Amino acid sequence: MPSRREQFGAGVAAVAPMLPGVAPFGVIAGLTAIGTGLSSAQAMAMSVVIFAGASQLATLQLVADGAMPAIILLTVFTINLRFSMYSASLAPHFQHLGRRWRLPLAYVLVDQNYALGIHHYRQGKPGAAEFGHWFFLGAGITLWLTWQAATAVGVFMGASVPRDWSLDFAIPLVFMVLLVPTLQDRPHIAAAVTGGVVATLAADMPLHLGIVTGALCGIAAGVWFEYRAEAA
Question: Is the pTM of this model over 0.90?
């Protein structure tokens, strides 16, 4: 039976291939924070408190545009609605844990960690049911440390990086690495394709509602394909 330490180490090892894509994303967040006029302390505090790349970048853009605080909070809430779906999906696997476990696990719940965690549970390997939260924690802490370190690099590099350095490619790479392990059957593929297409077409919707619209359409497509497969 795998031990807690082995599960924690497995989580660290599983997330390691994603770190080269996460790190440039964190550097971008740090550079953007300084570019919008935040101090080094403010930029790092935001990174620790929010710990969500898309939300951080959206917040910084709205701050730079002089948006009202209510609009910033609503935008961040909208972007992060997907975490409610992640939480609902993971809840059955964490229901045996107390609050002292659930709170820190909720804090390190990000896209990459969710994909790895739910895949780990679905595999049903020995020890996953009992110690799977240690796997989740190992991956989450590794992501957190990498993100904070990369953000710090971006913060302290500040405006010294030439503008023609295009690091934006790291953002789609992060989500592509996240997506591939979850594409196991036709419903998953249909959900991914539908959600991606709809989110792209709805990218200009206000308050970043295109992301939520794409997610809802992807879920609907996945459910429909799964229903058709069961009915066949």
Answer: no
